[in-house]
């Protein structure tokens, strides 16, 4: 479309590959390779083994995976509930008030996650609510961090929703609660699942706030990966990273399946 | 039996008046068309009845009930909009049942009433389908069935045919007329910008322009004897000629024309309304000499634009074997009883 | 109206309790010295330390450099995917989306294998030359962080750009080409103006993310590279200096919000 002669095209594609492969494709491949490697002291890894995976799927590591999954699922569902409620509520308000709510819900994105972690730590290590040392402080921080994304994507979807549907429903005699339950939420379902997927992904990979907060008995996978690499066990770290990526992608894939089914109805 | 009454209803958005003191009564069982160009306030009037716009002043009555302050779901109205707004996640039968369920109609009555509404619109076979599996015309029928299933006293139709192509539209027009014959008790408020739909379907037409009601009357009255220039030009695209009232008729461009002056004062300025299809080519009564400005062949007819005394007069004549060319001098004429004299100052919109 | 307000209030109250209230406590604690009472002492103490000033400077220049690199790189890559498509271009675009769903620190982990002291690049070098060690030692310097950030954040620029490019009518490009415009001119006069809002949005996002990035810096494991977020972590968790951590946190928030605000003003002036 843009470049029409053959030589020019190949030159552009060549430059693209030179930039794209080492920067984006290579890192993921390297992690995958390392997770199977016994040694890596030369140009290429050697001594292929699945021992790292055996280690990564038992004991502390398995515990870390379930911790991450439970944290991510809980935080995403909470965030989805609060974010959806917030977005629907904001939509019903006059514009200036809606702006205020928009700003409030988007603020956690602009504030560094480490600071969110610190703030939660400071606030919930003292009365009236003591959560420090429990798993709930981690889940709470994750919820705060991902609620912003849930709010934003649901809010965008609510704006896109054709008001004609709600109006048709109201003209047929449906009260607002009935319209919400039978018309608006079902029509928002594809966006809600997309938002849930996004929240889950972010929570699965969350490291910064978690590092500030995690109690010894609630170590999510990213912290476990950090602990492994920090002790120089890079191959184990890689295997754990692959487990993290795979789990994330599997859940995303399942969510996408639900989403296409919801959109197809 | 439920009618609709607008009592000086005004609606404004951010300082702009989009509906200005509308006074209009729709009799029970009547089909009233709100006809006007876009931005004339016709859709706003309909939405004020449905409850989606709050009037700045004035009251809206449905039957004897003042519904001005009621929420849409409390008004007991059926509505069909331009894009139908069928719920995409529900089957046709569930769409039609929606209003019944929302109004808590006893569960065992619902299937029969859904079937009845679908039968009435010829969609009995399609209950299991999803809206996206239907053609535009079928979606239209489902939307009407959904609105009728709740047995509303008032049915609001907002440009219901504008999303259909021309052939389907004339078919649906006949369908709507049949439905109204079958449901003579339902009062219908029909918003359209298409004069053919209004003339075909309506018992009476309310012509709207620039947020105001311009004219109300039966189709025949509006067509034959429009009260304003806007009505005359919007309903049937009439020639509007500035004339001076004389002793026995009117003067236009120095020519005396014989028309019914209805007792208008002699010497007053007025507008003469003449429909293009009553204008004939060649000599006759009320003869006007001019020059052909433009000529269009339209299959069965020729449309001539003839410049007479600085005004362009449209004439629709049966297809001509040897049509004149632009620049040819011609004569046109019309019968005295085919012209209507309007007040001065009114001009085509 | 009152009912609507009451209806939309609970989620806002929840968020305020879980986020605004803690944030307010951070600000309050940043004004409390060890001896108690309100004072500016934590601020003067933190501002006086060389480590803090170093971290502040590193954070800002790293974020600005990463944003600039991501904008250039992301624009070029998105341009090729959208307008010089090759077989598999769609898959690459999909890959970019997948990339976004992984945590940032994985990039640093991968770079350790690629450019670490016993990594692939140095391994190739020593095998080829027979020297005892390779020449690549930048990973534990800010340059390593910059490389990781550019890698990780470029997709955040590409995604809005690809969305914007897919909206662009390709007939425009064909008309421009048929009028004799060269590719560079088409990019400058037709594509760039259309892409500016997406470019500005992506750039703003990258700027904020880079200012707040923690995982990448933590994983480099270099004591030499410290940014405001890692300083917050080390002060609070490693040194248990909460007032100090709160001061750095407040500064970090102000720098993020301030630079982002400045960025918005500048990019609006530039017509995006």
TrEMBL record, chain A:
It holds the Pfam family BPD_transp_1. Residues 65-255 form the ABC transmembrane type-1 domain. The keyword Membrane applies. The keyword Transmembrane applies. Keywords: Cell inner membrane, Cell membrane, Membrane, Transmembrane, Transmembrane helix, Transport. It is found in: Cell inner membrane; Cell membrane. The chain crosses the membrane at residues 12-37, 69-88, 100-124, 136-159, 187-214, 234-256. InterPro entries: MetI-like, MetI-like_sf. It is a multi-pass membrane protein. Belongs to the binding-protein-dependent transport system permease family. PANTHER family: INNER MEMBRANE ABC TRANSPORTER PERMEASE PROTEIN YDCV (PTHR43357). This is ABC transporter permease subunit. It comes from Streptomyces glomeratus.
From TrEMBL, chain B:
InterPro entries: AAA+_ATPase, ABC_SmlMolc_Importer, ABC_transporter-like_ATP-bd, ABC_transporter-like_CS, Mo/tungstate-bd_C_term_dom, P-loop_NTPase, Transp-assoc_OB_typ2. Gene3D superfamilies: 2.40.50.100, P-loop containing nucleotide triphosphate hydrolases (3.40.50.300). It holds the Pfam family TOBE_2. GO terms for molecular function: ATP binding. Residues 4-235 form the ABC transporter domain. The keyword Repressor does not apply. It comes from the Bacteria. Keywords: ATP-binding, Nucleotide-binding, Transport. PANTHER family: SPERMIDINE/PUTRESCINE IMPORT ATP-BINDING PROTEIN POTA, SPERMIDINE_PUTRESCINE IMPORT ATP-BINDING PROTEIN POTA. This is ATP-binding cassette domain-containing protein. The lineage of its organism: Bacteria, Bacillati, Actinomycetota, Actinomycetes, Kitasatosporales.
UniProtKB/TrEMBL annotation, chain C:
Keywords: Cell inner membrane, Cell membrane, Membrane, Transmembrane, Transmembrane helix, Transport. It is found in: Cell inner membrane; Cell membrane. Its main location: membrane. InterPro entries: AminoethylPonate_ABC_perm-PhnU, MetI-like, MetI-like_sf. The chain crosses the membrane at residues 60-86, 98-116, 136-158, 195-222, 242-263. It is a multi-pass membrane protein. Residues 56-263 form the ABC transmembrane type-1 domain. Belongs to the binding-protein-dependent transport system permease family. This is 2-aminoethylphosphonate ABC transporter permease subunit. The lineage of its organism: Bacteria, Bacillati, Actinomycetota, Actinomycetes, Kitasatosporales.
């Amino acid at each position: 479309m843009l470049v029409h002669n053959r030589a020019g095209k190949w030159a552009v594609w060549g430059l693209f590959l030179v930039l794209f492969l080492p920067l984006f494709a290579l890192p993921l491949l390297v992690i995958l390779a390392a997770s199977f490697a016994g040694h890596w002291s030369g140009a290429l890894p050697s001594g292929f083994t699945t021992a790292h995976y055996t280690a990564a799927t038992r004991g502390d590591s398995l515990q870390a995976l379930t911790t991450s999954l439970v944290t991510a699922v809980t935080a995403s569902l909470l965030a989805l509930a609060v974010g959806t409620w917030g977005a629907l509520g904001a939509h019903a308000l006059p514009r200036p008030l809606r702006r205020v709510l928009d700003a409030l819900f988007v603020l956690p994105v602009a504030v560094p996650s480490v600071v969110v972690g610190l703030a939660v730590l400071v606030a919930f290590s003292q009365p009236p609510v003591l959560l420090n040392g429990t798993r709930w402080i981690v889940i709470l921080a994750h919820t705060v961090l991902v609620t912003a994304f849930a709010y934003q994507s649901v809010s965008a979807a609510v704006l896109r929703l054709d008001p004609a549907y709600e109006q048709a429903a109201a003209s047929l005699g449906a009260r607002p609660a009935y319209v919400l339950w039978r018309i608006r939420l079902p029509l928002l379902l594809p966006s809600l699942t997309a938002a849930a997927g996004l929240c889950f992904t972010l929570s699965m990979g969350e490291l910064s706030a978690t590092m500030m907060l995690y109690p010894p008995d609630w170590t999510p996978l990213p912290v476990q990966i950090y602990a492994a690499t920090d002790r120089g066990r890079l191959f184990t770290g890689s295997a754990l990273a692959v487990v993290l990526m795979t789990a994330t992608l599997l859940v995303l894939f399942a969510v996408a399946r639900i989403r296409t089914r919801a959109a197809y109805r | 039996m439920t009618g609709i009454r607008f009592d000086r209803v005004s609606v404004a958005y951010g300082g702009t008046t989009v509906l200005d003191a509308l006074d209009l009564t729709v009799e029970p069982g009547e089909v009233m068309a709100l006809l006007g160009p876009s931005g004339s306030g016709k859709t706003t009037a309909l939405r004020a009845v449905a409850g989606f716009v709050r009037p700045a002043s004035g009251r809206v009555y449905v039957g004897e009930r003042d519904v001005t302050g009621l929420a849409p779901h409390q008004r007991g109205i059926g509505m069909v909009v331009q894009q139908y707004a069928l719920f995409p996640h529900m089957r046709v039968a569930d769409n039609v049942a929606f209003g019944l369920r929302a109004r808590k109609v006893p569960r065992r009555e619902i299937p029969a009433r859904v079937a009845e509404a679908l039968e009435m619109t010829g969609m009995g076979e399609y209950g299991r389908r999803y809206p996206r599996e239907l053609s535009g015309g079928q979606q239209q029928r489902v939307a009407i069935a959904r609105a009728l299933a709740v047995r509303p006293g008032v049915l609001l139709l907002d440009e219901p045919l504008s999303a259909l192509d021309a052939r389907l539209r004339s078919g649906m027009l006949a369908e709507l007329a049949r439905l109204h014959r079958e449901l003579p008790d339902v009062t219908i408020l029909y918003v359209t910008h298409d004069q053919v739909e209004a003339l075909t379907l309506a018992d009476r037409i309310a012509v709207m322009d620039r947020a105001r009601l311009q004219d109300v009357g039966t189709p025949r009255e509006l067509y034959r004897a429009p009260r304003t220039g806007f009505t005359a030009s919007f309903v049937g695209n009439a020639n509007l000629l500035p004339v001076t009232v004389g002793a026995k008729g009117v003067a236009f461009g120095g020519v005396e024309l014989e028309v019914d002056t209805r007792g208008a004062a002699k010497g007053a300025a007025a507008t003469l309304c003449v429909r293009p299809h009553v204008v004939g080519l060649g000599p006759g009564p009320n003869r006007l000499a001019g020059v052909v400005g433009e000529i269009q062949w339209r299959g069965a007819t020729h449309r001539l634009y003839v410049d007479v005394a600085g005004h362009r007069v449209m004439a629709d004549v049966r297809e001509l074997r040897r049509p004149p060319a632009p620049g040819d001098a011609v004569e046109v004429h019309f019968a005295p009883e085919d012209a209507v004299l309007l007040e001065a100052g009114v001009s085509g919109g | 109206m009152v009912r609507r307000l009451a209806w939309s209030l609970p989620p806002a109250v929840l968020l305020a309790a879980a986020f605004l209230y803690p944030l307010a406590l951070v600000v309050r604690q940043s004004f409390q010295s060890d001896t108690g009472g309100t004072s500016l002492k934590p601020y003067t103490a933190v501002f006086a330390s060389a480590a803090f000033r170093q971290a502040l400077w590193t954070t800002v220049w790293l974020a600005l450099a990463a944003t600039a690199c991501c904008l250039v790189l992301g624009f070029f890559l998105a341009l090729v995917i959208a307008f010089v498509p090759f077989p598999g271009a769609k898959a690459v675009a999909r890959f970019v989306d997948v990339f976004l769903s992984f945590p940032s620190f994985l990039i640093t982990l991968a770079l350790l294998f690629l450019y670490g002291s016993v990594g692939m690049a140095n391994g190739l070098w020593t095998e080829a030359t027979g020297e005892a060690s390779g020449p690549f030692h930048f990973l534990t310097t800010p340059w390593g962080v910059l490389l990781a950030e550019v890698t990780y954040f470029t997709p955040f620029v590409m995604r809005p750009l690809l969305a914007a490019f897919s909206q662009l009518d390709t007939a425009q490009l064909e008309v421009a080409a048929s009028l004799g415009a060269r590719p560079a001119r088409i990019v400058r006069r037709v594509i760039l103006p259309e892409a500016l809002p997406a470019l500005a949005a992506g750039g703003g996002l990258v700027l904020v993310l880079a200012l707040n990035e923690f995982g990448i810096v933590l994983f480099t494991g270099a004591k030499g590279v410290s940014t405001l977020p890692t300083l917050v972590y080390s002060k609070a968790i490693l040194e248990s200096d909460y007032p100090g951590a709160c001061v750095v946190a407040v500064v970090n928030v102000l720098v993020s919000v301030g630079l982002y605000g400045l960025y918005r003003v500048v990019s609006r002036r530039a017509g995006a």
